[in-house]
Specification:
alpha+beta; 2 strands; 43% helix; globular
């Protein structure tokens, strides 16, 4: 999600019969950092998701703490309090 100058990364939402709001992964990122964050998050999802698992069910299964732990060391531009 973009503003005039910065980006917010959201992940894990969906519509349908079991809707879920996405979690905010990071806020106030530059375009380059937002792209890097999105790529790393997508790669983590690709490696750890079950076959055909949607992002909402993935987040319910692994939880935000797992995402924080796994990605924090890879995302030095995201302060701990924003994840």
């Amino acid at each position: 999600m973009g503003t005039n100058k910065r980006w917010t990364i959201l992940f894990g939402g969906n519509a349908g019969t079991r809707p879920r709001f996405a979690d905010i992964i990071a806020r106030n990122l530059s375009a380059a950092d937002a792209l890097d964050c999105a790529e790393r998050l997508a790669e983590f999802y690709r490696i750890h998701a079950k076959s055909h698992e949607r992002t909402a069910r993935f987040m319910e299964r692994v939880g935000m703490e797992t995402i924080r732990s796994a990605l924090l060391s890879l995302l030095p531009y995201v302060p701990v309090k924003q994840i």
